[in-house]
């Protein structure tokens, strides 16, 4: 009897610990696609952080579940991530076509099997080897449910395969796809009209093409570029009227500034200028800058 009580107590303690660990994350948990749509509609003062490839902070490797968990312990965020195909057709989370920069391997991702990739360790941004292994896209989708949004960038995964993986997991409430043109957008919406998009519209010509397409405005954010510039104001004005959030990615620009103070000033300026989503390699730092 005492043994049973002890076992029960240990089980309850384990459950409580797991629940407490989950509660430490700042999650975005959408029960339905419509609930997710509503959250990502424009509202004055809205500020959303997107971790570019997760994060490169805290000596964590990009495109890893570990990196995203670290961000969510600091702030709610969504994440742009990069799936690629192995030789045997497994979707894995590696940005580059080659393995050298981000793992202990070398050569092309597409030339190795998933079994071979599982032997490798991920590196952090400085090139230091970590304890973490490569994640598959399906692992990441399962992990992200109830926690965050994954925005899948376009690498070498065929769009048909990307669409099928999202359908398999019925992940429309927490998995987006990045599209670079109207044809790509139409492909995904034809597959499932509920699919949410991260749409590249960076020029006046891009905007006119989208207007003429007849595609809906209520299931996308818009990426308009990497920096503050006067031409952004036309984009902000148009898309705010449509209820659409506009994203600036500071990964290739302001993230490169030499000091945290310089970066923080630019992060605040991006939002003050009119953006509502800021994508960064340093999402934890962004969250601290805009508190």
From TrEMBL:
Entry keyword Signal: yes
Species: Sphingobacterium lactis
Pfam families: GDPD
InterPro entries: GP_PDE_dom (IPR030395), PLC-like_Pdiesterase_TIM-brl (IPR017946)
Protein name (record): Glycerophosphoryl diester phosphodiesterase
Gene Ontology cellular component annotations, sorted alphabetically: plasma membrane
SUPFAM superfamilies the record matches: PLC-like phosphodiesterases
TM ranges: none
Domain of life, source organism: Bacteria
GO MF annotation list: glycerophosphodiester phosphodiesterase activity
A single GO BP: phospholipid metabolic process
Keywords from the named record: Signal
Limits of the GP-PDE domain: 47-291
Signal sequence residues: 1-21
């Amino acid at each position: 009897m005492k043994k049973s009580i002890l076992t029960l107590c240990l089980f309850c303690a384990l459950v409580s610990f797991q629940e407490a660990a989950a509660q430490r994350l700042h999650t975005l948990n959408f029960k339905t696609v419509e609930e997710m749509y509503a959250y990502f509609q424009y509202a004055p003062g809205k500020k959303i952080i997107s971790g570019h490839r997760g994060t490169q902070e805290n000596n964590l490797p990009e495109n890893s579940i570990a990196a995203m968990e670290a961000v969510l312990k600091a702030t709610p965020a969504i994440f742009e991530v990069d799936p690629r195909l192995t030789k045997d057709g497994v979707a894995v989370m590696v940005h580059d076509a080659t393995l050298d920069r981000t793992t202990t391997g070398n050569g092309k991702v597409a030339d190795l099997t998933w079994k071979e990739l599982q032997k490798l360790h991920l590196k952090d941004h400085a090139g230091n080897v970590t304890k973490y292994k490569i994640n598959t896209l399906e692992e990441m989708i399962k992990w992200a449910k109830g926690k965050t949004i994954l925005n899948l960038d376009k690498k070498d995964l065929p769009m048909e395969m990307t669409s099928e993986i999202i359908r398999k997991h019925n992940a429309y409430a927490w998995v987006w796809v990045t599209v670079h043109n109207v044809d790509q957008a139409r492909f995904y919406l034809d597959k499932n009209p509920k699919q949410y998009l991260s749409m590249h519209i960076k020029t006046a010509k891009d905007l006119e093409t989208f207007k003429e397409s007849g595609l809906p405005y209520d299931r996308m954010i818009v990426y308009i570029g990497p920096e503050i510039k006067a031409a952004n104001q036309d984009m902000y004005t148009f898309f705010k009227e449509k209820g659409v959030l506009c994203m600036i990615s500071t990964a290739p620009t302001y993230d490169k500034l030499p000091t945290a103070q310089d970066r923080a000033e630019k992060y605040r300026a991006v939002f003050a200028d009119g953006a509502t989503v800021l994508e960064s390699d340093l999402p934890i730092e962004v969250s601290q800058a805009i508190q």
